[in-house]
Amino acid sequence: MDDRKSVQDWWRTSIIDMAPGRIAFRGRPIEELIGTVSFPQMIWLMVRGDMPSAAQAALFEAALVAGVDHGPQAPSISAARMAATCGVGLNNAMATGVNMLGDVHGGAGEQCAELYFDIDQRMSDGAPLDQAVEAGLTAWRAKYGKIVSGFGHRFHKPVDPRAPRLMTLVRDAAEAGTVSGRFADIGEAVQSVLSERQPIAMNIDGATSVIFCELGFAAPLSRGLFCLSRSVGILAHAWEQTQQGGRNKGPMPPSFLPTYDPDPQV
Known about the structure:
Layout: H1 3-8, E1 16-19, E2 22-25, E3 28-29, H2 30-33, H3 39-48, H4 54-66, H5 75-84, H6 90-98, H7 108-124, H8 129-144, H9 162-175, H10 182-194, H11 204-214, H12 219-244
Antiparallel strand pairs: 1-2, 2-3
Helix pairs in contact: 4-9, 4-11, 4-12, 5-6, 5-12, 6-12, 7-8, 7-10, 7-11, 7-12, 8-10, 9-11, 10-11
């Protein structure tokens, strides 16, 4: 391989064809996409390589809309607002917030999708839904512990108001033939098992994971898509904070100080 070809192959991509005077995403010229494609459709095209139907795009968009914000008490939002008071730009404040989206805060959708796909595989291998759910939950808990991502919420009890609306849209889409409804069955069966002792809500992560699985997105993309969705709220809060002003705002007002708990060993 000559040196020129080696350099050109260094970052091989099927996503974009870019040269002077030419930009095409997945083989589609940008001038044909501008004004004809919605942002959710563009996300799908870039990630998946094809264009969703209008019905698929509408369901996908509903999931993205549902996760945009959850208030300043959410670590990602509060971190972005604090960053905005420290003299950084909006992009830095947004990066601060997005970087808070890890396994505990922001990763539940990916973990929940893993559970759904595991149950789906068990059903494909011949297990009925109830047995597949029980076996899937047992395997989940052995790996992650007793808290099942996608279910339960520290604020919204016994119902997360976002989840029922999303599940209604999934059921409507299944009735219309847009999706199979298989993962909606799985999600609701998981919720039923988890609620045997006391009612537990399917939360935003549980519901959006149903949608992403129904639409064929791999489990890790559930986290990336949530980051895109939550970035909207992060931007809005960072911008609002810059308009409100404030300098070096910490997690508590200055009149409150953290509890000092001296180390008895010292």
